[in-house]
Amino acid sequence: MTTTSIEKPFNRILLTGAAGGLGKVLRERIKAWANIVRLSDIADLGAAGVGEEIVQCDLADKAAVLALMEGVDVVLHFGGISTEANFEAIMHANIQGTYNIYEAVHKHHVKRVIFASSNHAVGYYRTTDYIDADMPTRPDGMYGISKCFGESLSRYYYDRFGIETVCIRIGSSFPVPTTRRMMVTYFSYDDLFELLRCSVFAPRVGHTISFGVSDNPGKWWDNKKAAHLGFQAKDSSTAFTHLFPDSSAYPEKDDITTIYQGGGFLLTGPQYK
Amino acid sequence: MTTTSIEKPFNRILLTGAAGGLGKVLRERIKAWANIVRLSDIADLGAAGVGEEIVQCDLADKAAVLALMEGVDVVLHFGGISTEANFEAIMHANIQGTYNIYEAVHKHHVKRVIFASSNHAVGYYRTTDYIDADMPTRPDGMYGISKCFGESLSRYYYDRFGIETVCIRIGSSFPVPTTRRMMVTYFSYDDLFELLRCSVFAPRVGHTISFGVSDNPGKWWDNKKAAHLGFQAKDSSTAFTHLFPDSSAYPEKDDITTIYQGGGFLLTGPQYK
Amino acid sequence: MTTTSIEKPFNRILLTGAAGGLGKVLRERIKAWANIVRLSDIADLGAAGVGEEIVQCDLADKAAVLALMEGVDVVLHFGGISTEANFEAIMHANIQGTYNIYEAVHKHHVKRVIFASSNHAVGYYRTTDYIDADMPTRPDGMYGISKCFGESLSRYYYDRFGIETVCIRIGSSFPVPTTRRMMVTYFSYDDLFELLRCSVFAPRVGHTISFGVSDNPGKWWDNKKAAHLGFQAKDSSTAFTHLFPDSSAYPEKDDITTIYQGGGFLLTGPQYK
Amino acid sequence: MTTTSIEKPFNRILLTGAAGGLGKVLRERIKAWANIVRLSDIADLGAAGVGEEIVQCDLADKAAVLALMEGVDVVLHFGGISTEANFEAIMHANIQGTYNIYEAVHKHHVKRVIFASSNHAVGYYRTTDYIDADMPTRPDGMYGISKCFGESLSRYYYDRFGIETVCIRIGSSFPVPTTRRMMVTYFSYDDLFELLRCSVFAPRVGHTISFGVSDNPGKWWDNKKAAHLGFQAKDSSTAFTHLFPDSSAYPEKDDITTIYQGGGFLLTGPQYK
Amino acid sequence: MTTTSIEKPFNRILLTGAAGGLGKVLRERIKAWANIVRLSDIADLGAAGVGEEIVQCDLADKAAVLALMEGVDVVLHFGGISTEANFEAIMHANIQGTYNIYEAVHKHHVKRVIFASSNHAVGYYRTTDYIDADMPTRPDGMYGISKCFGESLSRYYYDRFGIETVCIRIGSSFPVPTTRRMMVTYFSYDDLFELLRCSVFAPRVGHTISFGVSDNPGKWWDNKKAAHLGFQAKDSSTAFTHLFPDSSAYPEKDDITTIYQGGGFLLTGPQYK
Amino acid sequence: MTTTSIEKPFNRILLTGAAGGLGKVLRERIKAWANIVRLSDIADLGAAGVGEEIVQCDLADKAAVLALMEGVDVVLHFGGISTEANFEAIMHANIQGTYNIYEAVHKHHVKRVIFASSNHAVGYYRTTDYIDADMPTRPDGMYGISKCFGESLSRYYYDRFGIETVCIRIGSSFPVPTTRRMMVTYFSYDDLFELLRCSVFAPRVGHTISFGVSDNPGKWWDNKKAAHLGFQAKDSSTAFTHLFPDSSAYPEKDDITTIYQGGGFLLTGPQYK
C-alpha cells in the first residue's frame, strides 16, 4: 500500500535527457513531486527504480515523442545535445526534437513545460554587460541558436495555446567551478533544484525566461523579469574563492573568451577555424 | 511632570481611520513619535488614552476636517473606505474626504502627509509582471480608482505648494497570509510600522510612491523609486510557507483572479455581474 | 426619402458638452458619421437641426445619463467643466459626471468612448521636457486632477469590461494662438476633427491616451503610444509665427508659468493665493 | 564591348527565391546593381536573360548551396517557404536552407547578406503596440519561428565572423492592400526596392533588423534601430484609403486576428484547429 | 536716424571665434538680432563694420574675457580650437577659455549662452548606433574631451546659477559634403543659423544639448531631448547624392574610421601613432 | 631572503595622492598586492617603509609623471585636489595632472588604472533620485567638473587604446558619519578596500564607473552598471543610527543642501556668494 504517493503533487512528471549530466542529478530529487517519474533519453538509463518509468527514445522521432507524453502532467525538457556540435546533429535533436515535444504537449493537453535553455543563447554579450531576459538574444554557436529556437517556439505555444513554459538559461551547473568564468556562472545543484521547484509549482508562470545562476559576485544576469517565480539562490561561488586567488594575469586585449560571456564555447565546434 | 514627552520628535500627529484594521494596529505604536496622538474616525474610537485626542468625524465634512487639522505636525491618512464599494460611497469618503484633508493640510501649513494608498491602484497588472512606481496606474475597481485620485491630488499639492507626501501602496497587511496571493503581497505589521517610520522621519521625501510589502519571494513590486526612504523589510512570507504546500492545482487559463495582481478584488463590488 | 443617411457609418452618436467651445465646432462636422447626432449639455443647445436630438441634462444626474445613453453607438464625451474651478463643482460635473457616463455606457453595451481629457493632466512637466503618454501624470490643478480621474476610470472599464476609450489630452484648440505658449500647444479644429475621426473609426483602440496637438515646432508631446490611431496632424502653428516675432524678453527665472507646461493655469483657481 | 557593365557596383549578386512573388518583382530591378545576377529557386525560373545566371536548386541541399555561392559578392536571400506550412517543410527549407546559405557565405567570404525576414516574427504583439527591433520576438506560427531562427543565425555569423546582414521584416508587399490590416502593413514595391538599395550599399550595416513597411498611417513599427540605413519610405497606403471607407463595424472583442499584429496568419497552418 | 536698430531684439550679442570657419559665416547673419554685434577672436578680424565691435583677445586671458563680456546680452561661444590638437593647447583655449567665458557671464549677469560643442563629444559611438543627448559621452580625442568639459561646466552654471545654455553638437557644417561620412553629418549653414535662432529666442531653454545636423538620411542623432527648441531642419544631404554614387567598396572590417561615428578624427592628433 | 614577495600578484603598484586622507588609509593595506608600492604625493610622505618607494612630485609636471610611471603595473590614482577649490588650482592638479597620468600610462603600457572619481560628479541630482552610472553627469562644483573630465578622459583612453579604468565615485569615506547626509553616502574603509581589490583583480573591467558606497539604507546609487566587478559591500551606516535619532526638524523647502545629493558642497568654493 502506497499512501505516501497519494500525497505527491503530480501523478506523472516527464524528465527528458535523464541520462545527461543534470538528468542524473535530478532523477532522484524530483521523485518528491510525482507518483511516477517518467525518464527518457536516447542513451541507456539503467533499470527503472521504484516510481520510475524508463522510455528510451530519440526526440527527433515524432511518433515516439507523442507516445512518450501520454499521461504526463508536467515536463522537464532537458533532452537533446547539450554542447556545441555540428548543425545537422543539433537540428535533429534540439530543433526537430523540441518541436516534437511541444506538439506532443499540445496534443496531450499538458499545461506546463520547464525547458532547459542555456546562457549560450546570450553568449555574445560582453563580460562587462549586465543583461535581463528582455534583451535581444546573442547566441554564441549552433547550440545557443538552438536554444533561441526553443525559446521562440515555446513563446508561440504560450501565445497561441496558453501552454506555459519556464525557459531556464542555465549557467554552469557542476559540483565545483573549474575556471574563473565559472566563478561567475556557477549554478549549484541545490539552486537548480530550487529554481525547478519554483518553476513547476508557481501558480502562474505564463512564458518566463529565467537565468539559472547562484548568487555569485559579479554575475552578469538580472532575473527581474522572472521575479514572479520567487526563486532566491541560496548558494554562491564565494565558497570556492580560494581556488582562484587574486591574480594580475590580465587576459590579452583580443582574447574573445574573456571579452564575451560565452567564454571558451566561442572557440569550439565545427564553425571555428 | 512629563519630561519624557518633551523628547518625542513631534508635538502632535494625526491618524485618520484610527478605528480601522490598520488604525488599531498603529494607535499604540505611533505614540513614541509625538506628545499627542490625535485619532480620528467616523466610527467610535473608545476613550482617549494618555497622550491621545479623539475626534469622531466624517472626512467628507469639510469644516470638521479643517478643525481636525488644527495644531497637527504630520498626518497619517488611513481614513476612508478601505475595500471595494459603490462609487458614491467611495466618492464621498475617499475623493471628497481626501480633498478635504489636503485643503486642511494646506491651510494649516502641515508639511507632510503619509497617505495609505493601495496595491489596487495597480491591480490590473499581470501576476507575471514586475512593476515600479513610475509605470501607469491600472486600478482594479472603484476603490483602486479613488487611490489613484489620492496619488494625483497629493502630487499636485507637492508640485504646487511643496507639501510632501509618501503614498504607500499597501499590499496585504494582516497577521497571517490566508491565500496564496497573500504569500506575495504580505506586509507584516512590523514592516508597515518601519516603512511609516522611514516615511515620517526621512529629511526629504518630496512626493514618493512606495509599495508596502515585506520581503516575500515572488513579489511583484520594485521599490527603487522609493529607495531614498531607506526602508528595508525585515519580514517575509516564507515564515508561512508551510501553510501553502507545493501543489499542482494550476488555476484555469481564464481565471482573472490569478492572471492579474488584484486577485479576488476583481470580482467584488457593484460593478461585477 | 433619405437614402444618404443609410450610408452613414453609425446610427446614433452622442456628443456631451455640445454647447461648449469645442462642442459647437463639432456639432456640424460629426453629422457625416451618424444618422442621428444626439447632443447633450447642461446649457441650452437651441433647436434640434435635421438629424439632431437635443437632450439638456446634468451629467451628475445618474438617471438622466442612463436615459441619455439609450440607443447610442459611440460617445464623444466633451461634457463637464473645462477650466479650473472649485473642487466641489469639478467633482460634481467631472468626477460624478464621468462615472455616470461610464456606468451608462456599460449598461447600454456601448463599445467605445472618446474622452476629452486635457494637457492639464500633465501640466507640471517642464517646458523643456518631452513626454509620452506612459509617463506619470502631473496635474496642474483640480481640473487636471479630474482628467486624471477620467483616464483611470476609463482604463478600468477597458481592463474589466473591454469598453474601449481614446483619451485625448487636448492642447489649445482655438482658431488662433493668442499667447507664446499656444504656439506650442495649438490644436487646429481640422486636426481635432481628424484625430476624432481616427479615434472613432480605427478598428481597435483598446485604451489609448493621445495628445491632441497640431504639428507645431517645439511641441512637448510624443504621440508614439497612440501611433496605431494613424493620426497625422496637417496643421501647424507656423502659420501664426508672424504674431510672435523673435524677442529677447526672457521670462524671469522663477516664473512658473513658463517653467511648467501648464502655463497660466497654474495661477488660476481657488487653490492659488 | 560592354563598357556599361564595368560601371555596375558589383560583379555578381545572388537572389534566392527568384521565382517567388517578390523574387519576380526584383529580378529586373536589381540588374542595375551587378554585371551578373544569379537567380536561384527550387521552382522553374524560365530562361536566363542578358546578364542573368539561372541555378535551380533546393536550399536544403548543402553541396548545391555551396556551389551556388561561388563568385558571389552579395546575397539577397528571399528563398524558402514564405507562408505558414507544416513544421518539417519549414525546417527543411527555412532552417536547414538558411543555415546552408550562411555556411556557404562564410566559406566563400561573401561580406553581406540581405535576409528576407517577416513581420510574422513579431505577429503576437498587439495592434495597439508600437515596437522596435530590440524588443523580444513574438512569432505567430512556424513560419515566423523560422524567421526568428534566421535572425539569430545571422546575428551569430556577424558576431563571430563579421559577416554583415540586414534582416528585413517585410510587411505586406503587394501591389494593392486588400484588407484593412494591409493598410497598416503595406510595403510598396518601390519602397522595398529602396530599402534593399540602402541595405546593399550602406558602407557599414553590422547586423541590422529593419521593418519593411511604407509610410502608412497607424503603422506599428519604429525603425529607429535601423536609422543608419538611411531608408526613407516614399509611398503610403493613404493612396488606397478610398478602398476602406470609415466603418463602425468594430471587430469582436475576442477576434485575435485584430487583437494581434499577425492578423489572419494566426488562424492558418497545421497548428490551428 | 536709426529707427530700425531699435527694433532689433537684443542690444548687444557677443560672438567668440568670429574669425573661424563658422564665425565668418555667422558674422553677417546675426546682425539681424542685435544693435551691436561684438566679435572676438585671437586672430585678426579686419575692420569693424556698421554695428560691429571688434575685440581681439585670447580666451585664456581671464581679465580680457571679463572685459569682453561687459554689456553683453547673449553669447554665441564659437571660440577656441576647433580641431584635434595637443592637449596643452586645447586646455588653454577650450578648458581655461570656456571657464573664463562662464565666469564672465556669471559676473555680468548674462542670461544665456549658445555653446558650439561638437559631435566629437560622442565620436566613439558606432555608425550603426542611434543616440540621443542623454546617453553617456564618448569623446574621440582631446578636442572632444574639451567639448564634454564645456557641456559639464555649462550644466553646472545652469544648476547652480540658472544661466541657460544650449550646447550644439555640430556635425559637419560646410558648403558641400566631401566624404561619405559627411553625407550623414552634413549641417547646412541655413540649418545652423536656424538652430541658433531657435536657441537664442526660445523663451526657456534651461540646459539643452542639441545635435546640429540637417535632415540627412541615415543620421545617427535623435534630437528628441531638444524638441522644445522647435528646430526643424530644412536641408538634407540628399542634395549631394550624385557626388557619392552607390558603391560596393565596403570598408575593411577593422577600419575604425567607419566603425565609429568620429570618422577620420580618430586617427588625427598627437595621441595617434 | 624574501620568498613571500614573489607570491604577490603585482611587482609594482603606484598610489598617487598617498599623503591624502584615503592615501594614508590605503598605504599599508595595498602592500599585500605588490612587491613594491610606489607612493607619490606633492606633500611629504615620510620615510619609505619596507617594500615602498617614495616619489614626491607635482602631477602637473609632465616629465615627472612620465618618470613616475616607469615600471608600474597598475595605478591607483588618488592624487590631485580632493575638495572644492578655485578653478585654476583644480585645472592644474586634476585636469593637467590626470592627463599627465594617462599619457604616462599610455607610454609605459600600463594596462589598468583605478581612478578616484567622486559623487560630486553627480551632486546635482536630487536626494529623492536613484541613479545609475549611465545617467548624465550633474557636477556640483569645479571639483566635480574635474572628476567628469577624468571620467571622459579615461573613457577615451579605453576606447582608443584599450587601457582599462575603473572610476570610483567615492561617497564619504571616513571612520564615522558626522552628518545625516553621510548616513546615506558613508563608505567604510573596508568596503573601499574591497572595491579597490575587485577593481584591480577582476580579469576584465573595460571602462567601468562604480559608486563607492557601503550598503546604507536610503542610498541614492544603483551599481548595476558595475555588477561585473563583483563588489559586495559588507558595511552599513546602520551601525551609526544611534548618532542620528529620528527627528521632525524638516529642512526648509529651499535648502539646496538637502534638495540635491551634493549637500554642503553646493555652498562652498569661490563660485558661491
TrEMBL record, chains A, B, C, D, E, F:
InterPro entries tied to this protein: Epimerase_deHydtase (IPR001509), NAD(P)-bd_dom_sf (IPR036291)
Q: Which GO terms describe its molecular function?
A: oxidoreductase activity
Instruction: Extract the Pfam families matched here.
Output: Epimerase
Q: What are the NAD-dependent epimerase/dehydratase domain coordinates in residue numbering? A: 13-171
Q: Keywords, A to Z?
A: NAD, Oxidoreductase
Family, similarity comment: Belongs to the NAD(P)-dependent epimerase/dehydratase family.
Xref: PANTHER family: 4-EPIMERASE, PUTATIVE (AFU_ORTHOLOGUE AFUA_7G00360)-RELATED, NUCLEOSIDE-DIPHOSPHATE-SUGAR EPIMERASE
Q: What is this protein called?
A: Uronate dehydrogenase
